[in-house]
Each structure stands twice: as C-alpha cells, then as structure tokens.
Amino acid sequence: MLHVLSSEFYKLRKSKISLLIFVSPIFAALFGFFETDSSKIVHGSQWMYKYMVMAAGHGLLFLPLLTGIFSAFICRYEHADGGWKQLLALPVSRSQVYIAKLISVMMLLALTQVLVLVSLLVIGWIKGVPGDFPWAFVLRSLFNGWLASAPLAALQLAVSVSWASFAAPLAVNVIFVIPNILVINSKYAPFYPWAQPVLSMFGNEKEAFGGAINISLFSLIVVVIGSFVAFFAAGLIYFQRKSM
Questions:
Q1: How many Å from the N-terminal Cα to the C-terminal Cα in the chain?
Q2: pTM of the entire structure?
Q3: Which domain holds residue 233?
Q4: pLDDT digits (tens, 9 = 90+) for 80-92
C-alpha cells in the first residue's frame, strides 16, 4: 500500500496539478483583503466575521470544484496509453490502487484547507484584525469541510475511473456545483454532495449566508458518513470489476 501511495505522490510532484491548492486560498485572501467593513463582528469577534467572508466562497464553490479536478487528474495518467494495464500488472491489488488514489485526493484537499487557514492569518495580520484568534471554531470548521468533501471525492473518483475523458468528469462537476447557492437553502441540501462541505463548515452558524443555513451538524455528519460509504463502496466494486 505504501508503495502505491509513494507512486501517486511521485506523479503529483512531477505534475503542476498541486499548484491548484493555492487557487482557493488566494481568492479567499482577496475577498478578505478587499472587504472594507472592519466593524462587523460575529459572536463578538471580527476574526469570526473575517473568516466567514473568506471561507464562504471557498466552501460553496472552490472546495467542491477542486475535489472534482483533483479526482479527475489523479486518473489522467492511467487513462492515457494503457496506463491502467501497466499499473495493474504490478504486484498490487485493485483495491490498493483505488484507495491510494482517494487518499491522494484527500491529501490535496487537506493542504488546501491548511492554506486557507494561512491566508486568514496573513490577511488578519495585514488588516490589523483585533482580538483573540478563534482557533477552536476555525480549525473545527476547516476540518469539517475537509471531512465532508470525502463523499464528493469518492463520487468523483468513481466517475473519473469510469470515463476515460478528462474533461467529462470536470464538466459534470461544474454543472452540479453551480446550483449550490440555491440548494443550500433547501431541505435537500444535506443530501447534495456538492453542498455538504459548506454545510459542514457553517451549518450551525445562523450568521452564515444571511441565516439561510440552519442544519443540525449531527444529522449532517450521519448523512456524510452514509453517502461516503455508499459512493466509496460503489466505486470500488465497479473498479474491481472493470475491464481494463
């Protein structure tokens, strides 16, 4: 298993896809820098308000988009020039290959979340945001968003494995990300994989998105775990039976 993971990380280092982990943190930093109302507070903290300004677009748009991009790219080499046959000819099982690819996607998303935290700290320092930094809330929010990306990563990986086209899974992902702003206001939001990251980050914060999000975090976690198990199992079974 470690050899398979090392191979995946080597391919990532040789590619430029890892540079995409900087895209969302940069946009988040721009949102935070150009947000001019420094008097607004959430729970008595300007840091909390600054975080919501910076992280809302990240969780709503960029995090699900990047999940789809990473999942599609992680299968790109194998779809080219009989790469799957060459990889599976090695003494590794299909389940090891599939799990290693999913872990690689989640690692890239984890790095993205860390960089969002760094961008918040930098912008807060530049703008001179007063008060104590809400470490507990911010770390919990970013971790929840990362964890809630797992079902979408499993779903997008299954799609990327099944379609040889690099563009097709990306197009599907974009199509389903666009309605996010409408879906998060509905009762079906917890069951929509593209909305689960932002819901997990802000689901119990009435100040987020003008109070549009108000969902029990426990219920959301149950749905996230259930959907991840379903998508992962379906994708793994398909991959094990797929003719390469």
A1: 21
A2: 0.91
A3: 2-241
A4: 777 787 877 778 8
- Distance of alpha carbon 138 from its chain centroid, rounded? 16
pLDDT band at 37 (very low <50, low <70, confident <90, very high): low
Q: What is the pLDDT, as a whole number, of residue 43?
A: 61
- The two three-digit tokens of residue 18, written as one number: 């890892």
Q: What is the rounded distance in angstroms from the CA atom of residue 97 to the CA atom of residue 7?
A: 10
Residues 171-195 have pLDDT tens digits of: 999 999 999 988 888 888 889 999 9
Domain count, the chain: 1
